Amino acid sequence: MSVPRVRTYVPGLDEILYGGIPERNIVLLSGGPGTGKSILAKQFLYNGLLKGESAIFVALEEHPVAVRRSFKHFGWDVSKYEKEGRFAIIDAFTGGIGASAQKEKYVVKQVDDVHELVDVLRQAIKEINASRISIDSVSTLYLTKPAMARHTIMSLKRVISGLGSTAFFVSQVSVGERGFGGPGVEHAVDGIIRLDLDEYEGKMYRSIIVWKMRDSKISMVRHPLEITDSGIIIQWDKYIKLSTFNVRIESLPSQEIEEMKKAVQEVKEYVKVARTEIEE
Ligand SMILES: Nc1ncnc2c1ncn2[C@@H]1O[C@H](COP(=O)(O)OP(=O)(O)OP(=O)(O)O)[C@@H](O)[C@H]1O
Ligand SMILES: [Mg+2]
Predict the structure, then answer these.
(1) E-strand spans in 78-129?
(2) Is the per-residue pLDDT at 183 higher than 90?
(3) How far apart are CA 210 and CA 54, in angstroms?
(4) Residue 246, CB-side half-sphere exposure with 13 Å CA sphere
(5) Burial level of 247, CB count in 10 A (0-12/13-18/19+)?
(6) What distance in angstroms lies between residue 232's CA and the mean position of ligand 2's atoms?
(7) Which of 71, 140, 170, 191 has the smallest count of CB within 10 Å of its CB?
(8) Ligand 1 mean position to 33 CA, how many Å?
(9) What are all long-range contacts of 145-153, with beta carbons under 8 Å and residues at least 24 apart?
(10) What residues does ligand 1 touch, defined as CB less than 6 Å away?
(11) Residue whose CB lies within 8 A of the most ligand 1 atoms, among 37, 63, 225, for a mutation test
């Protein structure tokens, strides 16, 4: 049976997810520094806004002012949607300190208090009826207390998924680290997408791989990815072979290309029904 899916509208991403992200899934967006996690997390939200949906960005790494500026860098002006009440930034960065922070509507005062964050998030989701959420990054929440990682992820997942929203949780890993953010986190989330940056003979190569996605078929190869002035573009019909000795980019078999195209086409026809709350 086909599940309702949220299309990301990120060029190439829906294809490698065979249509999009199953609704209510929490997806870990994992990768090393500079791999494009924050850009992808923002693009997912902005594309939803363009389609008439509502979205929330939880800022744990950057000042809300810097967040708005980095959306703008790609030509994504979120201020219009903030005024309309369809977009909100949750400031979990400043702790409410500073003149510009006082203008923010949603502020987490104790930035390391997950309960407060969950409360502010619940209120914001209900107020703006958000269907898309990005948290950048969840790693910040348990950096100093790894034992709390699973509990933190589950608390966030409960409120987001429970209210019918779909989310990207940015997870930071070190350069060369094979994992995605620790066992407690990796099993708690519904999906894992990994972004990579590899150097070969003095040249850098960007790529993306979908490691898991509950209730969905996934592409089983690594795809080349580009960051452009208008955001991320994934070469969904190509795969990249990186070894110690060479880098090769090859075409996917035509049967797979056709299957991915068809899957995206079918989701396009799915009409999003109103969100139904299951949270108690
Ligand atoms: N217009 C652009 N064209 C090409 N590349 C760009 C453009 N704008 C930003 N980038 C690249 O995107 C990279 C940053 O992406 P992003 O901020 O999403 O990384 P990240 O994975 O969130 O990293 P971190 O974990 O350090 O926060 C930068 O290294 C930059 O080179
Ligand atoms: Mg980032």
Answers:
(1) 87-91, 106-107
(2) no
(3) 25
(4) 3
(5) middle
(6) 14
(7) 140
(8) 8
(9) 146/182, 146/184, 148/114, 149/181, 149/182, 149/184, 149/185, 150/184, 150/185, 150/188, 151/114, 152/114, 153/26, 153/184, 153/185, 153/188, 153/189
(10) 31, 33-39, 172, 227-229
(11) 37
Enumerate the H helices of 107-148 as residue ranges. Answer: 114-128, 139-142
Number of domains observed in the structure of the chain: 1
What is the per-residue pLDDT across 17-47, written as a single tens digit (0 to 9) for each?
Answer: 999 999 999 999 999 999 999 999 999 999 9
- Protein residue whose Cα sits closest to atom 5 of ligand 1: 227
In-domain check, residue 275 = no
Residues forming a β-bridge with 213: 191
Contact 55, 45 (CB under 8 A): yes
CATH of the domain at 182: 3.40.50.300
Q: Distance from the CA of 122 to the center of ligand 2, in angstroms? A: 24
Task: Give the atom of ligand 1 at the shortest distance from the alpha carbon of 32.
Answer: 25
Among protein residues, the one whose CA lies closest to atom 28 of ligand 1? 34
- Best residue among 29, 38, 136 to mutate for probing ligand 1's pocket (most ligand atoms within 8 Å of CB) is 38
User: What's the pLDDT tens digit per position in 226-253?
Assistant: 999 999 999 999 999 988 888 899 999 9
